[in-house]
UniProtKB/TrEMBL annotation, chain A:
Domain of life where this protein originates: Bacteria
Pfam families the record matches: ABC2_membrane_2
Protein name: ABC transporter permease
Protein's UniProt keywords contain Transmembrane helix: yes
Keywords: Membrane, Transmembrane, Transmembrane helix
CC annotations in GO: plasma membrane
Keyword flag Membrane: yes
One Gene Ontology term of the molecular function aspect: ABC-type transporter activity
TM helices/strands, residue ranges: 20-37, 67-92, 113-146, 166-190, 202-223, 251-273
Automatic annotation (TrEMBL), chain B:
GO molecular function: ATP binding; ATP hydrolysis activity
Family: Belongs to the ABC transporter superfamily.
SUPFAM superfamilies from the UniProt entry: P-loop containing nucleoside triphosphate hydrolases
Keyword line: ATP-binding, Nucleotide-binding, Transport
InterPro entries, sorted: AAA+_ATPase, ABC_transporter-like_ATP-bd, ABC_transporter-like_CS, P-loop_NTPase
Phylogenetic classification of the source organism: Bacteria, Pseudomonadati, Bacteroidota, Cytophagia, Cytophagales
Native species: Aquirufa rosea
Listed Pfam families: ABC_tran
Domain of life: Bacteria
Domain (ABC transporter) ranges: 6-235
Protein name, UniProt field: ABC transporter ATP-binding protein
Length: 280, 306
């Protein structure tokens, strides 16, 4: 029954126009960034490298597809949670808003199975968003800007990664970024279980992300103890794969915290949805 | 002894401080077309939702097919088709795709041919691939019935199935229910505000008011002991009122308009009306004796309120 219900959820997501907003938005945004960097990328790059030019000399194609992909990911991974929440925040509450939940729940499918199927479908949608972002950033970046070594400016200084050493870092980074976005999807599905309108969970998800991000950014000692456990603190942990050496313990900690968040959100969702009266 | 398909005992459900259902009990037997009657807010939909486990009852026992819904939900729902309140579908999907989605989770296999045949059966032939968002209420209701019947359930639960339909739609639904009972021996429970419809279709019924079941039984039995509503046009009207009041001291006569009177009278006394009035030289222009479930229903609800 779970498999059949997952197929149903895929059919619904594929047929909903709002599901394509994310894909469309990524296409447009990446297109704009690629155009901007193609037009004026070199001057931006020289602004970054000028402070190092007294001690280092740069040769070759620095403004290449690998750097472009890194810039795009850095810029867009902040906005993409909204695109994910637009679809996943509607998965349960949308059924209440349309009234279809009455029809679904008079069928011999348990509430837990239905919720799990929505969670799986939401996860696949999130993966599609990340894959599309990867294709747009990395593939189109390489097509338009060629390839080469990757220069990353971190808080510790400049990290230069050789071309053959880059692709696996991107793949690993995308996996962690997927886990971070899956946490956003889980949060929005969880909030969706408390609501009977579509907009509420989407707005609430973004509000929580903004609030947690502010808490994570504020240099206030009161928040020191909770900051490491906020999922928003770990949303940019994909960047750790572009450090040298790679901070493995930091990555593992981020993965554990994100997985725990996912499990907690899923647990709350299952409990709430099973207790909820369908009076819509 | 008839086989019980639905057995509800002392059902209660509250939403916060509001008690929607206080003490509802009734039984539906195999092959019944069972009318579930009550004014707005009486607790009909809440009871039906509890019955299908859409909401959890606070107290009471619900058994369908002699199984408790709490522990055998999926088994019961596999044998049940229902429309609660109104049929809501995925507007961005076609009629075919909507049925396909519900068929997939109904616990039985329905082929493409079954779905097309069902759409044809409810009169949606040619509209299979139109988006439901473009459907009229009547078409959605037909699609709802298709969704209800697709997996060939033994029990059909219809919550106000004719609400919002045009006269032809109401006749179609009524005929469909009769066909389902007569040709396929389905057990059907339906609530409706169109009480005359229940009178036409149902063989048994329960009336609920303010969350309590007031009366339950065969429609014929419940109706047979009841007084009829008499509409009488007579002249002179004052004399008619006086003569009738003397002859039937227990009745309350209401002067509606002009020479038109209305009152309730036991069926056995109706033939005496014309005899008594003619003997007192009161002219009768029209005499209508109406046996109406609606009147019975209103009366019994009013009695319960007192």
């Amino acid at each position: 029954m779970l498999f059949k219900s997952v197929i149903n959820e895929f059919i619904k997501i594929v047929a909903k126009p709002r599901s394509y907003l994310g894909i469309g938005a990524i296409t447009v945004l990446v297109g704009v960034i690629l155009f901007a960097l193609k037009s004026d990328g070199l001057s931006i790059l020289s602004f970054v490298t000028s402070s190092f030019e007294q001690t280092l000399s740069f040769e070759g194609n620095l403004l290449n597809g690998n750097l472009i992909a890194f810039i795009i990911l850095q810029m867009l991974l902040v906005q993409i949670p909204l695109l994910v929440a637009l679809v996943t925040g509607d998965l349960i509450s949308g059924e209440f808003a349309m009234g279809t939940i009455r029809m679904v729940m008079t069928k011999p499918i348990s509430r837990t199975t239905l919720l799990l199927s929505k969670f799986i479908a939401g996860a696949v949608y999130t993966a599609c968003i990340i894959i599309w972002l990867g294709i747009m950033a990395l593939v189109f970046g390489r097509i338009f800007f060629g390839t080469g070594d990757l220069i990353v400016l971190n808080t510790d200084g400049l990290v230069i990664l050789q071309e053959p050493d880059i692709l696996w870092r991107y793949l690993s980074g995308f996996l962690v970024a997927f886990l971070a976005l899956l946490t956003v999807a889980s949060l929005s599905i969880c909030l969706s279980c408390f609501s009977e309108n579509s907009i509420g969970p989407i707005v609430a998800t973004m509000s929580i992300i903004i609030l947690f991000t502010i808490i994570g950014t504020l240099e206030v000692s009161v928040f020191d103890h909770i900051r490491p456990y906020l999922f928003t603190t770990h949303m940019a942990s994909w960047r750790n794969f572009f450090e040298e050496p790679i901070p493995k313990s930091s990555i593992i900690q981020s993965i554990v915290i994100l997985v725990v968040h996912n499990l907690v959100f899923l647990g709350i969702s299952i409990y709430t949805f099973n207790k909820k009266d369908i009076s819509a | 002894m008839p086989e019980s398909i639905i057995s509800i005992q002392h059902l209660s459900k509250s939403f916060g401080s509001f008690q929607a259902v206080k003490d509802v009990s009734f039984q539906v037997n195999k092959g019944d077309v069972f009318g579930f009657l009550g004014p707005n807010g009486a607790g009909k939909s809440t009871s039906m939702r509890c019955m299908l486990s859409l909401i959890q009852a606070d107290a009471g026992e619900i058994r369908l097919f002699d199984l408790p819904i709490k522990t055998h939900r999926n088994e019961i729902l596999r044998r049940t088709g229902s429309i609660i309140e109104k049929p809501d579908f995925y507007k961005y999907l076609s009629a075919y795709r909507n049925l396909d989605i519900f068929a997939r989770i109904s616990g039985t296999y329905s082929s493409k041919r079954d779905i097309y045949a069902m759409l044809d059966f409810v009169g949606l032939h040619g509209r299979e691939h139109d988006k439901v968002g473009n459907f009229s209420h009547g078409m959605k209701q037909r699609l709802g019935i298709a969704q209800t019947l697709l997996h060939n359930p033994d029990l059909i639960v219809l919550d106000e199935p004719t609400t919002g339909l045009d006269p032809q739609g109401i006749i179609d639904v009524r005929n469909l229910i009769i066909r389902l009972k007569e040709e396929q021996q389905k057990t059907i429970i339906l609530s409706s505000h169109d009480l005359s419809e229940i009178e036409m279709i149902a063989n048994r019924m329960v009336i609920i008011n303010q969350g309590k079941s007031i009366v339950e039984g065969s429609v014929k039995e419940l109706m047979s002991t009841e007084h009829l509503l008499i509409r009488l046009e007579a002249e002179p009207v004052e004399k008619a009122i006086q003569v009738l009041s003397n002859a039937f001291p227990d009745i309350a006569i209401e002067l509606k308009s002009g020479n038109l009177l209305e009152f309730h009278l036991n069926r056995s006394l109706v033939p005496q009306i014309s005899q008594i009035l003619n003997a007192q030289e009161v002219d009768i222009y029209s005499l209508e004796a109406k046996r109406s479930l609606e009147d019975y229903f209103i009366k019994i609800v009013q009695q319960d309120a007192i």
